[in-house]
What does this fold into?
Amino acid sequence: MTNDTNPFYDAVAQHYTLFFRDWETQMEREGLGLRSIFRNQGITRVLDASCGSGVQSIPLAKLGFNVTAADPSEGMLIRAREIAADQGVQGKIAFIQSDFLNLLSNVQAPFDAVITKGSALPHLLLDQEIETALRIFNQLLRVGGLLVIGMRDFADMIEDRPRFIPGLIHELDNGHEFVTFDIWEWEDGPPITATQNLYIVQGDGSQYETVKRSVVYRPLSTDEVKVVLLESGFDIISDQPDRSERVIVARKQEASKTYRFPFKR
Ligand SMILES: C[S@@+](CC[C@H](N)C(=O)[O-])C[C@H]1O[C@@H](n2cnc3c(N)ncnc32)[C@H](O)[C@@H]1O
It folds into this structure.
């Protein structure tokens, strides 16, 4: 892997629920959204390949799915286990420390569905890594199984290359304010990369402390991902926004149907 995101996610894991306007509402939405995608598809066994602090895995377990939750960040896995315990589903999720590219040796296939939401796929920087990850997801699925990819569509950002993106303000129980915003840096590459510099500002109204944490993305468009999906043994079922991001749903084809594009991307 060319992009080690663990220092960033380990550092922000304890704050991660504050990166959502309302964590409980977000968990509920994610669970219901995935349940509607999975409806009537014969799905019981689900791999969350980038579980983070469990915003998809935990509600899926509460809804009765059999969930394996993988993530490379130890900090995020610790947070996910804590939240799963609070929500009474700690025994119902198998947590595994793994990045996408090592999943084949870390989890037991086949799965009925693989999900990776929250813009984890664009943390892979190289074409080769993205292609390999999608082929691994394909190998982990049964024929007819679903892959759900949730990501920011960087097509919307790549032309304007915004530098400043406001985040959220929370009032903490101790009376402190917790404020976030991003400053992005764009590099032409190759590959083109976008660095998110996340500023976390905390204080009591008169004195504040600021921490800056940085993580790198490959600013992929969902159209680029769909081309690679077709080359990796998937049919595209849908590509729609939910409240947070674009969501591509793809189905594993039978082996003989895999498309090969005669051009190089
Ligand atoms: C923004 S979080 C998303 C977590 C959660 N799915 C959500 O929607 O909030 C991105 C996650 O991707 C994980 N990640 C980063 N690189 C990865 C890789 N190469 N393979 C698997 N997961 C990765 C990070 O550790 C992090 O937990």
In short: The chain has a mean pLDDT of 95. The chain has eight helices and eleven strands. The longest strand covers residues 141-151.
